[in-house]
Amino acid sequence: MQAANSSSDSSVDTAIDLEGFLPYRLSVLSNMVSSAIAGAYSERFGLTIPEWRIIAVLGRFPGLSAREVADKTAMDKVAVSRAVSRLRGAQLLHHATAPQDRRRSILSLSEKGRALLGQVAPLALDYEARLLDGFSVADRQRLAVALLKLQERAREIGPLQESQAPSSVRTE
Amino acid sequence: MQAANSSSDSSVDTAIDLEGFLPYRLSVLSNMVSSAIAGAYSERFGLTIPEWRIIAVLGRFPGLSAREVADKTAMDKVAVSRAVSRLRGAQLLHHATAPQDRRRSILSLSEKGRALLGQVAPLALDYEARLLDGFSVADRQRLAVALLKLQERAREIGPLQESQAPSSVRTE
DNA sequence: AATAAATAGTTGCAATTGCAACAATTATAG
DNA sequence: CTATAATTGTTGCAATTGCAACTATTTATT
Which residues contact A145 (CB under 8 A, 6 or more apart)? Predict the structure, then answer.
């Protein structure tokens, strides 16, 4: 059919086994886990995952600023801002302005927020435990190490270096 | 990191170590990897991740219907429908109606689509290789097994309803 | 001190996504 | 055969998100 087929013979020399492709595996698994958890949280407590994350991190590190929360939770600062605003509206956390730097906020759980955390945390930990059911202690350790290592590698590699794009694409 | 100054909190013995919480680790890692890849694809080829996935799976399994693509890629059928529409617009894939069941579509890469796959696939595989750099063969094997096992567990646990589901949960 | 640069957080707007309703077609029941 | 149910794919609408511009405050430069 095709004349002068420059690089490849038929269709499948470049085929990717999507099922075995690590980024794909991670994405599928993460989406399954996240949506399972998100469903339970929203159904039972009216919480989104960003909201839940903020509650969790403030339960452990009270007094963080929005920026620090964003750093610790790996969330966008806009997402933090909006989730904090909702949580304040629901009176789940307190918000103050740092006296020595009035740009910064000081966030901490309210009594109500701590009570909610007390309900949500066991659920979360139970889900994790069920996920890991069947994993030995050594397996869990290896998994944790591997995930951290991958994260470190991903951080190093970063935005996937841009060479000069061959501009073979539609601009726009 | 630094030691938590947890001594003063009165009622939070339920604090979660977000950093060690598996669903959180998975989400952070998956987001890092996905956005790195998405950035490169969109920059170089004008592809979104859903579009790239469809191309990848059709490269390997030509002739699938939209439904089958959705199943294989773990994407929502709406996302598939829209991505297919864009890809058709860019003439990257062919679309036909199945003769024996005119509801079904028959999707396959166009010549242009195969050429694009030929460019994208090495990039994707290279990124994966760099991610896994430093992992022994045995480590990779263990990681793959662990991720599949987790996915299987997540599928079994499902939408996280009550902890113990009464014997018959199926609503079919 | 005055101006410029940097940082924290918010808001507007556009693009993406998810859910549900829908039309078209095929399968099943009576 | 007809009516009903189920399945495939698309579309409309609302909610979410991401990016950039913006305000307010602090730090750095001259």
Answer: none
pTM: 0.86
Give the closest-approach CA distance of B45 to chain A in angstroms. Answer: 5
A53-97 confidence digits (pLDDT tens): 999 999 999 999 999 999 999 899 999 999 999 999 999 999 999
Question: What angle do the packed helices A49-60 and A66-73 form, to 10 degrees?
Answer: 110
Within 10 angstroms of residue B4's Cβ, the number of other Cβ atoms is: 12
Distance CA A51, CA A85 (A): 10
- What CA–CA distances, in Å, run from B68 to B48, B57, B103? 19, 10, 13
Which token pair is A37? 């958890």
Nearest to B35 by CA among A146, A163, A155, A148: A155
Q: Which residues of A touch B44 (CB under 8 A)?
A: 162, 165-166, 169
